[in-house]
Amino acid sequence: MSLLELHGVSKEFGAIRALHDVSFSVRPGEIVGLMGDNGAGKSTLVKIVSGIYPPSAGHLSFEGSDAHIASPAEARRLGIETVYQDLALADNLTAAANIFLGRELKYNVGPFRFLRHNAMNARAAELFAELKSETRSDDLVKQMSGGQRQAVAIARTRLADAKLILMDEPTAAISVRQVAEVLSLIHRLKEAGIAVILISHRMPDVFAVCERIIVMRRGNKVADKPIGETSPEEVTALITGAKEAA
């Protein structure tokens, strides 16, 4: 059974058509690459799945049931998490504090409530161990590399028990070593049975970790193929319009 299905999804902003009749599915634990040039519709698609935009037409289903994802909170309730390119981390806080931000563990002493720092640090350490990341719970985010920051953002989704993670350009503007670390994190998610939609402009990264690739152009889906049945050259041609569809 598919985890996520899009059925004829379209999105219009006044006279501008951002998406037209897009359909595809994602299975549990599957890593799907989503590629396309600027303005292809990738961001709009992600915002529909994550509950920021409602579709103008079409509908979504999640785990076999119709899904009306009216807000990011509803998406999270279903098990859909998004890791945006800016990561939305608080630089002045530790890794553990970022993971638990807004979901802090507390205990009561009379009328007072206190944070359970040790418990949060311990749980964060467990999450980093599951991801095989060297990131430490008490490290400040502002002192971290790009790869470590991604680990914090991904660990936060693991705390929420995500079933599907949308990752927006996770390997943009980081070093080669950090790219390898992030791709390893994505493999860990697959091993845990979590599906990933990877939005990326980096062809080598998509071909390194994805099982299937979806190509968008001008709001249309022009390809949806297993990674072994296409090539970087074909994907480039589809993105640029040198090839109409595959």
Automatic annotation (TrEMBL):
Family matches, as Pfam families: ABC_tran
Domain of life: Bacteria
Coiled coil: none
Keywords: ATP-binding, Nucleotide-binding
GO molecular-function term, one example from the UniProt record: ATP binding
UniProt entry tagged with the keyword Glycosyltransferase: no
Record has Nucleotide-binding as a keyword: yes
ABC transporter domain: residues covered: 4-243
Descriptive protein name: Sugar ABC transporter ATP-binding protein
Organism per entry: Devosia geojensis
Lineage: Bacteria, Pseudomonadati, Pseudomonadota, Alphaproteobacteria, Hyphomicrobiales
